[in-house]
Fold this protein.
Amino acid sequence: MLGALASSDIPRSEMAEWEEPMWPFRYCDFEMHTTEFEKNKMDPLLCPYNLEIEEMKKLPKCVLQTSEFDLIHRDVHMIVPKMKEAGIYLDHLDYSGVGHMF
């Protein structure tokens, strides 16, 4: 079962070189959004990857946006197939050469 992040089960040894130093911050970001992270980490409102397909089908169609050096880059790419299956994926923007919140 996946944790809070879609890519949380990927070993650090498989991370890209630029991702390695930021790995610990990925969890801190989610912990900032809830006072009970361990209890809520499977909550789809906090972590949309955890939505079941039937629930995802209820969402509006959307476009995803990320950047090449974004902490959630892998997660965004991993949710695309699930969104396509649910029929809500429209497109994806992936800005090259920049980080999160450029």
About this structure: The mean pLDDT is 80. The longest strand covers residues 89-99. Residues 12-99 form one domain. The beta strands are 62-69, 89-99.
